[in-house]
Write a structure and sequence with these properties.
alpha+beta, 4 helices, four-stranded antiparallel beta sheet
Length: about 170
Amino acid sequence: MQKYAWDHEGRFPPRLSHLVAQGYLPAKGLVSSADPSGGKEGGVPDAYSEWGQAKETDEPGSSYLYEFSEAVCQWDWKSYLGGKPSQSDVDSNRDGTVTWAEAKSWQLTHGDTTQQPTSRAYAKHRFPIVRCYWYDYPHAGANPESRCTVNLSVDLQTVFVAQPWWEKDRP
């Protein structure tokens, strides 16, 4: 991911699969060693349905949830993002849709409604870009409060553990 960003003027790939297609990762580089499905269930285990599956971000053969995906955002970002932005505020490329990457970029710089006080920029080392829900699976399946994720932060240097709703964690 670091090399890709370096080679592309700081931009992140539109999908994680681009890292494989362009030779930045080996073919199996997107399958977590903790994922018994081998990437078939996508970034969030199917058993974790109450957290939302984010299926629009799933990629064939990937165990990871990519928060900066080019996939069109299907969660309710309008009521969640800091400053209550309009679509035109968040749609940075002006194509009429809001992608995960656009919503998460707004959230990174403008915060969200979970913060106290609300609408503060997040520190890059505490904001996930790639998330793995599989390291706690299946042991946490029956107890959502005990679930955790392993995350690569948007600074591309920090790995941290968080609950699935990472915004509620206290640094």
